[in-house]
Amino acid sequence: MFGLFKKKESMPPIRDVVWMSDAAKKQGALALVDDAKAPVIAGWFDDTIQTWQRFFEAEGRAFHIESVPYLQALDVKDRTVFLLEHYPLASRETKVMLHWKPKEIIAFVSMEDALLQLFGGDNLIALMQKMGIAENETLEHKMISRSIRNAQEKLDKKVPHERPTDSQEEWFALNVNTGKAKL
Fold first, then answer.
1. Is beta strand 65-67 parallel, antiparallel or unpaired with respect to 80-83?
2. For position 113, which CATH number holds?
3. Residue 163 contacts residue 96 (beta carbons within 8 Å)
4. How many domains does the chain fold into?
5. What is the pTM of this model?
C-alpha cells in the first residue's frame, strides 16, 4: 500500500581512497589496480578516461577504461570496480550503480578534485600537511566517504537541471557557480 513500509534500495558501498594530490592519486591508484584481479576501471567523464588512458600507457600498462554510465550489472558482478572519480551529483551516481553487485567499489579521490575543491580541499591539504601526512599516503574512513556523499547531495539540491559535459572541470563551470565562495 503506497510503498510506505517498503525497504529503500541502496547502492553498493563505495570505499574512498583519498590522496593529497592528483599526482599521488595516479601513482597510488596504479599500484592498487596492478594488485587487483580482473578489475573494472571506470570513469564518468570522457576527458578523465582519456587522461587516465594516456597515464596508463605512459606507465607501460594496457588497462581498458569503461564509461560508468554504460556499465551493466553483469559487467561488474563479483568484480572490483575502480572509479577514477566521483560524479558530482549523488542522485546520478546512485541511479547508475543501484543494481550493481560488485565485489567492491573503490573510488580514487584527490584533495585537488573539483568536488573537494568546492568544499574546502585547499584547507584540508593544509591540515594534512600540518599533521605530517606525506603526499603519497592515503586517507580512508567511513566519515570521509560520508562527507563526500554529503557534498554530492548538497550539489543535488543546488543543481536541479544539469548540463552534461565531457570533463569534470567543465561540469562545475557550467553547472555550479565556482567562485571562491564554498558551499
1. unpaired
2. 3.40.50.300
3. no
4. 1
5. 0.86
